[in-house]
Design a protein that fits this description.
This protein is mainly alpha-helical. It is built from four helices and no strands.
Length: 63
């Protein structure tokens, strides 16, 4: 999604879209190149999704 967005927009918005691109960060992994910043990126996404999920479950409990 962010790859397609990076092709449509220009300037700083395109740079941000490329920076948060999951596919761009995954390109080197099949070749065996694992960068620490890519691992931190993916772990951050996992942590954010878990946090959002727990917030949704907590909010549903109070309804």
């Amino acid at each position: 999604m962010s790859d397609a967005l990076a092709r449509v927009v220009t300037g700083p918005a395109a740079q941000v879209a490329q920076y948060v691109s999951i596919t761009r960060r995954f390109e080197d992994m099949p070749r065996g190149v694992v960068d620490t910043k890519d691992i931190v990126f993916f772990l951050s996404i996992v942590a954010a999704c878990l946090f959002i999920t727990t917030q949704i479950i907590t909010a549903r409990r109070w309804r």
